[in-house]
């Protein structure tokens, strides 16, 4: 593969929004065995809450996917790789990135919940500051 072709493929990988429209691969090979990635992502992201074993599975799956992603990128940079092979690798890597994005969002609170929590934390901090500035102890009495 020529240097400019490799640059084109690298740009595709690093492009902002590269995962938009990308499909999660049906299967990936993890530690020499085929793993049904798309089915697993749908199963793990479809429920409201995860069990402890599912959380562990998500953690291990993300770690394994990052290793598979790195191996694919190393193959892309191999001198024996053709442009067509590189394009297939880029498609697989963007699909893996899409799966990682979906798995990263599992269990994270939504924006509204985060905003309410941050507002409560800010209000507590503000009240503690006012008590200190006005010379009140924790019970509300002046010192």
Topology:
Layout: H1 3-14, E1 28-30, E2 33-35, H2 37-46, H3 52-76, H4 83-104, H5 111-134
Antiparallel strand pairs: 1-2
Describe the structure.
The chain is mainly alpha-helical and 143 residues long. The chain folds into two domains: 3-108, no CATH class; 109-143. 65% of the residues lie in helices and 4% in strands. The protein contains five helices and two strands, in the order αββαααα. The protein has a two-stranded antiparallel ribbon with strand order 1-2. A hairpin with a 2-residue loop joins strand 1 (28-30) and strand 2 (33-35). Helix 1 (3-14) packs parallel to helix 4 (83-104). The radius of gyration is 23 Å and the shape is elongated. The N and C termini lie far apart (77 Å). The mean pLDDT is 86.
Instruction: Give average pLDDT, whole number.
Output: 86
Query: Number of helical runs?
Result: 5
Number of domains: 2
**Count of DSSP strands:** 2
Largest sheet: 2 strands, antiparallel
**Helical percentage:** 55-70%
Biggest sheet, spatial arrangement of strands: 1-2
Q: Globular, elongated, flat, extended or rod-shaped: what is the shape?
A: elongated
**What structural class do you assign from the helix and strand content?**
mainly alpha
> Which residues sit in consecutive blocks of at least 5 with pLDDT less than 50?
none
């Amino acid at each position: 593969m020529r240097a400019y072709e490799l640059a084109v493929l690298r740009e595709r990988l690093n492009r902002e929004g590269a995962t938009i429209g990308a499909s999660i691969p049906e299967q990936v090979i993890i530690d020499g065995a085929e793993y049904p990635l798309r089915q697993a992502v749908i199963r793990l992201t479809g429920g409201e809450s995860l069990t402890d074993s599912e959380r562990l599975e998500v953690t291990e799956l993300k770690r394994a996917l990052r290793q598979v992603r790195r191996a694919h990128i190393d193959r892309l940079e191999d001198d024996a790789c053709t442009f067509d092979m590189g394009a297939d690798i880029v498609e697989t890597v963007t699909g893996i990135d899409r799966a990682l994005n979906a798995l990263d969002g599992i269990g994270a609170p939504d924006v509204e919940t985060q905003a309410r929590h941050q507002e409560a934390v800010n209000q507590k901090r503000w009240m503690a500051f006012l008590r200190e500035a006005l010379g009140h102890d924790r019970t509300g009495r002046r010192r």
